[in-house]
Write a structure and sequence with these properties.
Length: 149
């Protein structure tokens, strides 16, 4: 069964951005703090459920797609796996960098995410230092793009 988007309009950031799917307010706050302190020139657009995030992506113009998609593995309404399976069917999402984070790192999941075009699988950080390391890993992508690599 193919998932169809709802017809909803969303505001697209005007500059480079990370599209983040995360339903835990603390994890969202920790990531935002760590990421924006190092990469203030990059926006974070956030959705707290997978369905709204998927709807945003499928209605987003191709020239305004996020630079980086970061998904919590177990979001409500539509999981990271469901989103990646649906995106895999549409070629316009092929070049978008995709990552999943989870508190439960299961090797079979990691393999399946990779097969669905996911470039990174992160363990969810537990301490402040770990959040900054994760922010650097995501931000590294933006540094590469800035240098033309």
């Amino acid at each position: 069964m193919e998932i169809q988007p709802h017809k909803t309009e969303y505001m697209v950031p005007l500059k480079r951005y990370v599209l983040l799917g995360e339903d835990d307010e603390d994890d969202l706050a920790f990531f935002k703090e760590a990421f924006t302190s190092r990469y203030p020139h990059v926006d974070i657009l956030h959705f707290d459920n997978g369905r709204e995030l998927f709807d945003f992506l499928t209605t987003c113009p191709s020239d305004s797609l996020p630079d980086f998609l970061l998904l919590d593995n177990l979001m409500p309404m539509m999981s990271a796996m469901d989103i990646l399976k649906a995106l895999e069917k549409q070629s316009r999402f092929e070049k978008m960098v995709k990552a999943v984070w989870s508190t439960l790192a299961l090797p079979p999941d990691q393999e399946q995410f990779s097969e669905l075009g996911c470039s990174y699988y992160f363990d969810k950080p537990v301490g402040k230092k770990d959040w900054y390391s994760l922010a650097s890993a995501v931000g590294f992508h933006f540094e590469l793009k800035a240098t033309g690599s």
